[in-house]
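Chapter summary example.
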Amino acid sequence: MSKMSELAAEFQNEYHDLIETGNLEELEKERDKFLKEKAYEAEKERLKEKLAKHYGKIYTTKELQEEFTVKSFAAPYVFVSCKRDNADGTLQFTHMPRFYFNFQII
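The structure predicted for these 106 residues follows.
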């Protein structure tokens, strides 16, 4: 099954009730929103893979909170303390989507 076929099937399953109403204006709005969300997720994964290839470990906000204590932000850096060994350091981050990477001990 092609990616487009998969997306079409997913949309049909998720918006079955709306499709049945025949409200084309609302259906078009929801379709556009659905496709933008899917495109954003795909772009987010491409960025994460690209960063990982260059910098190694990439952290989401949740992962950052699990592994580090945040001391302060000074974009594009965040100053942190590693919970595992109390090492102070910095991470760089992207704004949107938010990823943290390149931990450097200071």
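To summarize the output: The chain is about 55% helix and 25% strand.
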